[in-house]
Design a protein that fits this description.
By secondary structure, the chain is mainly α. Helices cover 66% and strands 3% of the residues. The protein has a two-stranded antiparallel sheet with strand order 1-2. A two-stranded antiparallel ribbon has the order 3-4.
């Protein structure tokens, strides 16, 4: 059977890429100005955590539903017989009207956020925006099934897809900052704050793209996805893009997949994968805590407005891209376990320096830059480690199924963490913002992160050997890459 290119090439793929960009912008555009938006409504500090958690909750619910189109995920792996079991697909593809409905829900969520007069309306708006953003799963599948199982084409498109998502994240922060100086204005008899402009702009972008997406949408044919599934099986990169779990989308796993840095060995290590999950859970808690507390903390301590908060939040995101670039530049020379340990030590030292009664502005900005850089260095190293530790089975599909299963676990771990950590951070910040505990707020803000960073460093020290890539150990290294060996001195006179 000849390779089928699939439905999503040309203009259909262009509009899917455009929607991916807008989805990522929608995810972050409200974060920098969220506290400034809900504070005049009489919101208390816990509301910021709930509103932050609303988007990943909505996105997770939709992504869980859409993941079965057009192929259901593998739900059971029988290693005794080396077979995999699938659920039955719910349909050949998602109907066009359902897809368009999700995009309209995203429009409604952003409009509701802008016109909100109560924090509960903001929460509902972010939840609806998350539901619309959850359709990113379809964009991921459209890229997967547009290649006809061509491995090289798939790798390049996945990296392009992840890069576009990262650009969308940065643009979302830029738009939030650019529109923050807009003065309050009246629209349809409702007085709107300047923080309402970024979501309204995103709603407008959705409206502009929806007609083109509707006209070019063509469901994936049964022959196409059967051919791709038979020829390629499951992807090594994430089969579903759980948007709430990654600020840069699928960029990091796609880079690892494309570079072939983490080819599985024949030695699966279940214990190490469990350690990686725990480590990833704790790391994500650190980042979420910073994101949630960033707006209230900068407003209370530095008296910054939405523009300053957006710029500094942008520094956190952009430094993550710098961290990825730095990590990739040294990946051939420095093993992933060393990169992971070095970044964790830097996080520990950074939090330790911040444990003081007051926080200078310059020091806080440096803290954001270092944390963003170190988090994504750890993220990239952990992706390499867990793909390597899953191991390689005799059956190629079974190997891919194990990767798929673990990728689902790590995505769900990150999603649940983003929800729970956001809510808990809101209540912790609220408690230490009361008059009786106000003097201890800096220690509470940085102390929690410092405690987590201590545990992370201790875990990495204990399990350092398990974070070595076994596939690298089994590879034949060139002579100039071999480690130095002790010299052997012969004292015998051979003459």
């Amino acid at each position: 059977m000849g390779a089928s290119k699939g439905a999503f090439t040309g203009w259909p793929l262009f509009f899917e890429m455009a929607l991916a960009l807008i989805h990522m912008m929608s995810m972050v555009v409200a974060i920098p100005g969220m506290w400034s938006h809900i504070k005049p409504m009489g919101a208390s500090y816990p509301w910021i955590g709930w509103c932050f958690a609303a988007y990943p909750m909505g996105s997770w619910l939709v992504s869980r539903y859409l993941r079965d189109f057009p192929l259901a995920p593998i739900v059971e792996i029988n290693k005794k017989t080396n077979t995999t079991v699938r659920d039955k697909p719910r349909g050949n593809s998602i109907p066009r009207y359902v897809y368009m409905l999700l995009l309209l829900i995203a429009v409604g969520g952003n409009v509701l956020y802008a016109f909100a007069t109560h924090p509960g309306m903001v929460l509902a708006g972010r939840f609806l925006s998350g539901m619309g953003g959850g359709s990113m799963v379809l964009g991921h599948k459209f890229v997967e099934f547009s290649t006809g199982a061509d491995d090289m084409m798939l790798r390049s498109r996945m990296v392009m897809f992840g890069a576009l998502q990262a650009v969308g994240t940065v643009l979302g922060v830029v738009i939030a900052g650019a529109l923050s100086p807009v003065p309050s204005f009246s629209l349809f008899g409702v007085e709107l704050q300047s923080t309402a402009m970024p979501p309204l702009f995103i709603a407008l972008l959705y409206i502009l793209v929806i007609p083109g997406s509707y006209m070019t949408y063509k469901p994936i044919s049964k022959d196409t996805y059967e051919h791709v599934d038979t020829a390629k099986g499951e992807m090594d990169s994430p089969p579903n893009n759980y948007m709430p779990s990654q600020r840069l989308g699928v960029l990091v796993p796609a880079i690892v997949y494309d570079r072939g840095q983490a080819r599985p060995s024949s030695l699966p290590d279940v214990f190490s994968t469990a350690v990686v999950l725990v480590l990833y859970f704790m790391l994500t808690n650190l980042l979420v805590g910073i994101e949630v507390a960033h707006g209230p903390f900068c407003t209370d301590v530095f008296e910054w407005g939405a523009l300053d908060i957006s710029i500094t939040y942008g520094a956190l995101i952009i430094s993550g891209l710098v961290g990825i670039a730095v990590s990739l530049s040294v990946s051939d020379e420095v093993p992933c376990n060393r990169r992971l340990f070095g970044a964790l030590v830097m996080i520990f030292v950074t939090y330790g320096v911040m444990l003081q009664p007051s926080t200078p502005k310059e020091q806080y900005i440096g803290f954001l830059v270092l944390m963003g850089c170190c988090f994504f260095i750890c993220d990239l190293a952990l992706v390499e480690i867990y793909i390597d530790k899953i191991g390689e089975e005799d059956n190629a599909r079974l190997t891919a199924a194990c990767k798929l299963q673990f990728m689902g676990w790590i995505n769900q771990t990150a999603t649940v963490t983003r929800v729970l950590a956001a809510i808990v951070t809101g209540y912790i910040y609220s408690y230490f913002s009361e008059k009786n505990h106000l003097s201890r707020r800096p220690y509470a803000v940085y102390g929690c992160g410092f405690g987590v960073s201590v545990l992370l460093v201790m875990m990495c020290m204990i399990f350092y050997k398990r974070f070595q890539m076994r596939s690298t150990e089994n590879q034949m290294l060139p002579q100039d890459k071999l480690p130095l060996q002790p010299q052997q001195i012969n004292c015998m006179d051979e003459a």
